[in-house]
Design a protein that fits this description.
One of its GO terms (cellular component) is cytoplasm. The protein is of the alpha+beta class. The chain is built from two helices and nine strands, in the order H-H-E-E-E-E-E-E-E-E-E. The chain has one domain: Metal Binding Protein, Guanine Nucleotide Exchange Factor, Chain A.
Length: 131
């Protein structure tokens, strides 16, 4: 799969912290309830930590209790879904449509009208407060 923003692992390693590289480029998962963006105050946007494409807004965020930032929808065209059969289960991985960075997974158990729960690693995104 190719993306508009393509870089070598060496280039990504030069730009990202070790933890952020592990999540965005190696599909690692941060431990639950540890992410800096689990609870956010104010209005703003969440962008990919690799390329800064805006993916979500605070109006799409909700507390799912799962331990990771959760959103009920994304900004259209910003997320690519891919089948993930790792860890002995089948899930739907979500990737940034611009750089292919691993963000987390999407599940069909969301409590809002969309029925979706985008479960995202805090290390994969940046928050910009509009206030």
């Amino acid at each position: 799969m190719s993306f508009p923003i393509e870089k070598t692992d060496a280039e990504w390693r030069n730009e990202l912290s070790n933890d952020r590289f592990a999540v965005l480029r190696e599909a690692a998962t941060e431990p639950p309830f540890t992410g800096a963006l689990l609870h956010v105050d104010g209005q703003g946007t969440f962008a990919c930590g690799g390329c800064q494409q805006v993916l979500f807004t605070t109006s799409q965020k909700f507390d799912s209790g799962c331990g990771w930032p959760s959103f009920d929808e994304c900004i259209p065209g910003t997320i690519i879904e891919r089948r993930d059969a790792s860890l002995g289960m089948v899930r739907t991985e979500i990737l940034c449509s611009q750089c292919g960075g691993h963000l987390g997974h999407v599940f069909n158990d969301g409590p809002t009208e969309s029925g979706l729960r985008y479960c995202v690693n805090s290390l994969a995104i940046d928050y910009e407060n509009e206030n």
